[in-house]
Every structure is written in C-alpha cells, then in structure tokens.
User: Which sequence fits this backbone?
C-alpha cells in the first residue's frame, strides 16, 4: 500500500474522532512505522512488554485472552482504527491480551513515549487524545451493558450493525460466538432465524 493511501486512512479516522490540523497529522505520521503481518501472526503476546500504539491500515485483527485453556474474544479491530491507544495512554506497558492478525495486515505503530511527547507539546493533540479516550470508554461501557441486558439475538444484531455484514463474513463462527459469549450452536440458530425472517 502506498504511503499516501496509508496517510489518508490515518487522517480520515483521526479526523472522524476530532479534527486535527494537517501539520499535526503530518507530524504524527512521520513518527510512525509501517509493519506487515501475515495471517495468524501475533502483533502482541499476552504478558509481553509493549511500548507501542498500533493503527490498523488494512486487514482484520482479533484481540483475545486464554483462561482455563479456553480462548475468549475481547474485540475485533477493523481497518482505520487504533488497536491499543487507550491502554498505552494509561501507562500499562504489559499486554494483558493476545493481538493476532486474522488475515494479511498493514499496521502503523508509534512509540508510546513519542505519543506522550505529542500530548505534552500540543494542546490540540492533547484535546484529541481526551476526546478519543472518552469515546473508547463510552464504547466499552456500551458493549458490556448490552452484553448483560440484551438477548443473544439482540447482541448479534448489534454486532451486525457495528461490524457490517461483509466483516462478519470474514469472522469464523466460533470467534464471533466467543465475542458474543454464546456457543457456536446458539449463534448458528440465531443466524438461521434472522435469515428466515428476511426471506419472509
């Protein structure tokens, strides 16, 4: 992917959160490195130290933990989103999750120290970081409130709205079921019921 396209992807997402000047965007981009990941390659390993923040340019990433030998999916990252900016800005350099490429991915990374320097040296960028953190916390609370109060069918429909049908086609049934905290069999039945309703 050409650098101009990578920059435009970063710019579009950053400005969708809160607008930044072109000068600040260029400064941010110049401090970032581009990394290519193969399918099933780990970007982060649970328990490993990480001093970087990542932005997904292309591909699909899953975030998961392993408890009692069972994988639990915490999130999926679509192109145009940061992977871990909130956790790094809260000074937690030890990864508590596995971050894995589900397909070929292109990732931008920036050292968390460089990111903190941008926050410290620019009121504009510090304000952007505050807005981003607020949106991340709101989204986190939104998901978990839905997890406890919505039915499995409603949860799936919420996921369909937020991720889009094309993205769901890329996610294996067992991964999506883990993300929704239901069994693959239950998810399969939910999908069949929704499809039958749409046909009618």
Assistant:
């Amino acid at each position: 992917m050409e650098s101009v396209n990578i920059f435009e992807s970063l710019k579009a997402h950053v400005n969708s959160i809160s607008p930044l000047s072109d000068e600040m965007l260029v400064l941010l981009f110049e401090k970032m490195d581009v990394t290519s990941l193969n399918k099933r390659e780990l970007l982060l390993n649970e328990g490993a130290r990480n001093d970087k923040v990542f932005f997904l340019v292309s591909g699909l990433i899953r975030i998961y933990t392993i408890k009692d030998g069972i994988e639990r999916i915490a999130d999926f990252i679509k192109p145009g989103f940061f992977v871990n900016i909130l956790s790094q800005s809260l000074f937690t350099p030890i990864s508590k999750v596995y971050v894995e490429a589900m397909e070929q991915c292109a990732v931008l990374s920036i050292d968390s120290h460089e990111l903190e320097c941008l926050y410290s040296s620019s009121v504009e960028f510090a304000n952007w970081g505050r807005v981003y953190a607020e949106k991340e916390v709101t989204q986190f609370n939104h998901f978990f409130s839905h997890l406890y109060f919505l039915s499995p069918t409603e949860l799936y429909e919420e996921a369909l709205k937020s991720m889009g049908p094309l993205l769901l086609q890329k996610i294996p049934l067992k991964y999506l079921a883990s993300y929704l905290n239901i069994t693959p069999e239950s998810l399969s039945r939910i999908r069949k019921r929704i499809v039958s309703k749409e046909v009618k």
About this structure: The mean pLDDT is 87. The longest helix spans residues 123-149. The CA atoms of residues 38 and 95 lie 20 Å apart. The longest strand covers residues 70-77.
